[in-house]
Amino acid sequence: MHVFYKEEFKLGVSPHQRSVEQALEHGVVCIDKPQGPSSHEVSAFVKKILHVNKAGHTGTLDPNVSGVLPVLLNQGCKVSHFLGETSKTYVCVMQLEKEVSKKDLVKAFNYFKGKIYQTPPLLSAVAKNLRIREVKELKILEVKERNVLFSVSSEAGFYVRNLVFDVGEVLGVKAEMAELRRTKAGVLTEDKCITLQELSDYYWLWKEKGNDEKLKKAIIPIEDFVKLKRVIASDDCLRPISTGADLAIPGILAMDEKIQRGERVGIFTGKGELVAVATALRGSSEIKDLKKGMAFDIERVIQGF
Length: 305
What we know:
This protein is α+β, with helices and mostly antiparallel strands.
């Protein structure tokens, strides 16, 4: 990170030192979604349990799919539009019409590594256009008779059900998705998940017993979830930025290297809080050589001051 100036930071609070009330405004909870309810219903449950004004999930899981479902809270919902490239990891049980050899399975799976074409299924809520999605890792974990357990890591918008069908087409046998679980979404993994019942218990402990330890641990700061290159703004600029003013070069204290013109970045306080998402009007190499001028166009204000 290139540092321009140093100053004492007075405004804001470190994300990991927020009170429960502050965490509920700028946090995300990682829910272990059960099979049955839709992702929208799980978000509604979270909203009711935590008594927040807004709650929204990031990346839909079908009702019969379980696993990692990040749910953004209140002001944290504002970052949902900037998470589209978040990669996902799944574990799936594929059931074949008849047994095939491990050698044939490996050969068939190898066809679907890297960038592949997919068309969203008819039941999906997106346009049924042919798209390209990258499969970053595809691994067979276990084979037992007609059942194949495998893991797949891919970019957002990938349909595992389509993959199962296509693998069956290559093998020449009917293939169905028997069970699917998401084990990772972006930086959030299964070990960071809690159930809806646990979330309800943690909230009760805080409200009724004054014990906020477990609830504070369960609410993850959005700063840990949003992975954007960072720009640190001076305290004097925070209030104008939070009202939509662009960030000029004199207000930059530090920034990550290799920021490109047109790249989306996060504007942060010196204490590490995400203030806004912005678009770079100049590259970092150009900004270093200038003393004045606009540097970042504020796209979305996340937090006010």
